[in-house]
Amino acid sequence: MDKKTLIILQTDLNAQLELIKLIDQKLQDRAEGLTPEDTIRLESTAYQIYNLYNAVEDLLKIVATYFENNITDTAHYHTALLRRMTQTIPDIRPALISADAFIILNALRGFRHFFRHAYGTAIEYDQLKINLDKALNLSPLLDRDVNHFLQQLTPT
Hints:
The protein is mainly alpha-helical. It is 72% helix and 0% strand. The two termini are 13 Å apart.
């Protein structure tokens, strides 16, 4: 990758990471004092988990666009994108996310699917709490993984 393209990629990734951090902060704010009886806060927290996953998926799409962007299995696109980003593609790019981040993101992908299609379904506190704990652990892993990815791309 030439220097100019690398700078643009770094800028795009950093901008998306900033957006992810803003959503993560909203998530932390909404989750503070969360109780099973507070349905408004439960729904707001669920919405922020949904937003967090989507923002991270957009980060993955940025990398896919710069490097290979040819996931053709549209029925399993979200899963394929996650898996692809755990893989180093020889002579093209290093892996973007670690196995630890993948596990969290894959669980949040499932929650995102539920939330997106849960018309009229109440948010269950216990299920939300499981996904909330995962979501709150994601940001440090993501920062570490993206920094490692960028270091591998930067010529020494």
